[in-house]
């Protein structure tokens, strides 16, 4: 016996809540996408409350009617999305990976009882951090739709919690997220989701000891604004941004770890009591992030037992404290001892995307393996860190592969490069084995810049460091580039550049081979599968490949400058700029259909600006090597040997721009 789904299938629930209405609207849209028009009567999907069921649990009983039983909004939403995925075949990342939904007349569903997997992580969700692409991108003129689709995808993955943006965006999109059924929580730098002190009071120094009442008012206002949402209240006290509070405090009062920890402990307790005043049975968390983890580990911070303690990875997937500038202590962020006799209330903040102005990934995939991610997350589970997982998802689309892997861990499933690559490709790339091989090989093809297993380079390794050197060169050309100390240590700039060159040179052939593998795979594909592969996996490989080529040409140009060969240095830098331009061009050409202008606001990696900075450095090199009339190189390149030193007419053409000059040099180099 079968229940027949078709375009006229009705979804019935009297007086649905706002979140359930959103869930119903999603399934109605999916029914319209999946089915062809028909004159056949539609069967009924009925939502029915069962107060005996656990929160978020659902059960779908299929007979003459398809009935979804649940006791909570999220349970009904998960049931509706289960129908979309398992009966209609619309996958969690259908939107971000351009799944082709072939319409049919109807789909039979066998009579029986269906239920989803039970997650082992209590609160699980995404942090839309560094969301600069989503901020400026719109779908058919609607700037809200990107976040609506992102929240929908999170729900499809089984998520129940989100930080719906950074700073202003978190307040801008928190109602939409709540309306769609998600718990709201907060950025570790924005306790209680409150307005930043320096924004509310731009003329005052953000010193708590000087203005305690003003800080408290901001926190109280935030609680009042959000008290009707489902909130996991983030308690804490950091600086006015992603930094320690003492970086902004001009009082000098908190000059020891003990004093800093005491203030943080005091304010967290004060915030906890404030929330209890307005909210019944609140849920609390706090982030042991960066400097907070170090203070906690040293015993300077005291927390109430009911607060979920959130440990963070270092931005590269390793559960140790993050590197900040040149400070890298790599203290384990997992608890040393877990009391298994009681719930330890632990969770994690984990990155599949990161922005550190050093070597992280933002528009390319996490450069570390699925095996590595599985090992780290398994350790978290073994230490009972299952209360809360917030995943930095950035702008979603570039990170779908790793987000899909992490959502499997929400359900306690093992993941590996070999298995996840095949499962992902079966779902989104027509089960083509050569594509799975490209995904499986990606992590081992990225550059290794340090001794630890997590020290693989994202695209920021190429862009941030080249811009730092260019700026240094243009501005003063002193002994060292401090911005590179984290990587090279305090060595002369020539050695710093050579250090980067050697890292790139060691990994060059492996990355070239990987890029060729992806190109060959692309050439073997056609239709929508080829377009999907080219705009995701091949795009990632291309960014790495062309940016690597840009760095190598840049380093060669710098060495030529050191050796006094300014003309050759100018030429090498010209090629470097073109490689960065090519990476940007490929990225922008991937913006097909609904993705038009998705990468327009690439202002973090900012590949295009890296090319711009290289060209500014080219201009300086020209001033050093050419003469003040800009006719020395011109004569050398444009005049015949016998005319070169005849000065009756200094020039016979307009002065050449740097680009025009490079064009001539490029033609001669390649001829």
CATH superfamily of the largest domain: Glycosyl hydrolase family 115
Largest sheet composition: 8 strands, parallel
Overall 3D geometry? globular
CATH hierarchy class name of the largest domain: Alpha Beta
Class computed from helices, strands and strand pairing: alpha/beta
Regions with pLDDT < 50 over 5+ consecutive residues?
none
Distance between the termini: 73 Å
Label the CATH architecture of the largest domain.
Alpha-Beta Barrel
Mean pLDDT figure: 94
Give the amount of beta strand, in percent.
5-15%
Number of domains: 4
Major sheet: arrangement of strands: 10-9-8-15-14-13-12-11
- Might you state the CATH topology name of the largest domain? TIM Barrel
Could you explain the architecture of this structure?
The protein has 671 residues and is α/β, with parallel strands linked by helices. The chain has four domains: 2-114, Chitobiase, domain 2; 123-415, TIM Barrel; 460-625, Methane Monooxygenase Hydroxylase, Chain G, domain 1 (Up-down Bundle); 628-671, no CATH class. Helices cover 45% and strands 10% of the residues. The chain has 23 helices and 15 strands. Helix 20 packs across helix 23.
Topology:
Blueprint: E1 2-6, E2 10-12, H1 18-34, E3 44-49, E4 58-62, E5 66-70, H2 73-87, E6 106-110, E7 112-114, E8 123-127, H3 132-136, H4 145-156, E9 161-163, H5 168-172, H6 174-179, E10 183-184, H7 197-200, H8 212-226, E11 232-235, H9 257-278, E12 283-288, H10 291-297, E13 308-312, E14 346-351, H11 370-382, E15 388-392, H12 400-410, H13 417-428, H14 433-445, H15 460-475, H16 485-488, H17 493-523, H18 527-534, H19 537-562, H20 566-589, H21 607-625, H22 632-638, H23 658-670
Parallel strand pairs: 2-3, 3-5, 8-9, 8-15, 9-10, 11-12, 12-13, 13-14, 14-15
Antiparallel strand pairs: 1-6, 4-5, 4-7
């Amino acid at each position: 016996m079968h229940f027949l789904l078709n375009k006229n299938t009705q979804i019935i629930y009297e007086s649905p809540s706002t979140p359930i209405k959103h869930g119903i609207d999603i399934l109605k849209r999916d029914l319209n996408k999946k089915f062809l028009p028909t004159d056949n009567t539609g069967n009924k999907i009925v939502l029915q409350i069962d107060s005996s069921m656990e929160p978020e649990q659902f059960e779908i009983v299929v007979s003459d009617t398809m009935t979804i039983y649940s006791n909570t909004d999220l349970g009904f939403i998960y049931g509706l999305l289960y129908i979309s995925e398992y009966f209609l075949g619309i996958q969690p990342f259908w939107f971000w990976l351009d799944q082709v939904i072939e319409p049919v007349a109807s789909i039979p569903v066998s009579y029986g009882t269906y239920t989803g997997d039970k997650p082992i992580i209590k609160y699980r969700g995404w942090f839309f951090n560094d969301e600069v692409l989503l901020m400026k991108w719109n779908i058919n003129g609607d700037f809200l739709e990107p976040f609506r689709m992102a929240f929908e995808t999170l729900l499809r993955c089984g998520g129940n919690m989100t930080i719906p943006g950074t700073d202003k965006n978190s307040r801008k999109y928190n109602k939409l997220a709540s309306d769609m059924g998600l718990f709201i929580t907060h950025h570790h730098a924005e306790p209680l989701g409150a307005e930043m002190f320096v924004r509310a009071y731009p003329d005052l120094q953000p010193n708590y000891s000087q203005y305690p009442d003003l800080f408290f008012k901001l926190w109280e206002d935030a609680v009042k604004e959000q008290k009707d949402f489902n909130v996991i209240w983030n308690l804490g006290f950091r600086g006015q941004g992603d930094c320690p509070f003492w970086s902004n405090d001009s009082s000098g009062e908190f000059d020891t770890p003990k004093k800093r920890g005491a203030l943080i402990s005091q304010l967290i307790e004060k915030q906890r009591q404030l929330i209890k005043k307005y909210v019944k049975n609140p849920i609390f968390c706090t982030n042991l992030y960066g400097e907070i983890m170090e203070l906690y580990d040293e015993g300077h911070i005291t927390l109430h037992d009911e607060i979920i303690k959130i440990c963070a990875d270092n931005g590269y997937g390793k559960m140790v404290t993050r590197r900040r500038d040149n400070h890298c202590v790599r203290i384990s962020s997992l608890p040393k001892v877990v009391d298994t006799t009681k719930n330890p209330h632990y969770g994690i903040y984990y990155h599949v995307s990161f922005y550190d102005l050093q070597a992280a990934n933002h528009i390319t995939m996490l450069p570390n393996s699925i095996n590595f991610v599985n090992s780290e997350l398994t350790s978290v589970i073994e230490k009972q860190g299952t209360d809360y997982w917030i995943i930095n998802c950035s702008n979603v689309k570039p990170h779908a592969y790793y987000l899909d892997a992490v959502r499997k861990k929400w359900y306690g499933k093992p993941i590996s490069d070999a298995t996840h690559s095949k499962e992902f490709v079966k779902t989104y790339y027509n089960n083509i084995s050569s594509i799975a091989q490209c995904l499986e090989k990606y992590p081992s093809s990225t550059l290794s810049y340090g001794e630890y297993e997590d020290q693989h380079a994202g695209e920021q390794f190429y862009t941030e460091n080249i811009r730092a050197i260019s700026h240094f060169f243009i501005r003063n050309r002193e002994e060292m580039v401090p911005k590179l100390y984290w990587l090279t240590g305090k060595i002369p700039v020539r050695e710093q550049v050579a250090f980067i060159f050697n890292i790139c040179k060691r990994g060059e052939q492996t990355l070239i081979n990987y890029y060729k593998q992806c190109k060959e795979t692309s050439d073997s594909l056609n239709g929508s599968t080829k377009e999907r592969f080219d705009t995701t996996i091949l795009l990632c490989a291309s960014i790495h490949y062309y940016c690597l080529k840009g760095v190598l040409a840049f380093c060669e140009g710098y060495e030529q400058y050191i050796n006094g060969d300014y003309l050759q240095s100018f030429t090498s830098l010209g090629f470097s700029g073109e490689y960065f331009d090519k990476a940007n061009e490929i990225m922008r050409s991937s913006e097909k259909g609904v993705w038009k202008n998705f990468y327009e606001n690439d202002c973090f990696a900012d590949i295009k600006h890296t090319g711009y900075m290289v060209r500014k450095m080219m201009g300086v090199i020209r001033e050093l090597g050419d003469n003040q009339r800009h006719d020395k190189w011109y004569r050398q390149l444009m005049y015949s040997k016998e005319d070169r030193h005849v000065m009756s007419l200094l020039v016979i053409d307009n002065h050449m721009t740097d680009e025009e000059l490079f064009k001539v040099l490029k033609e001669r180099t390649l001829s």
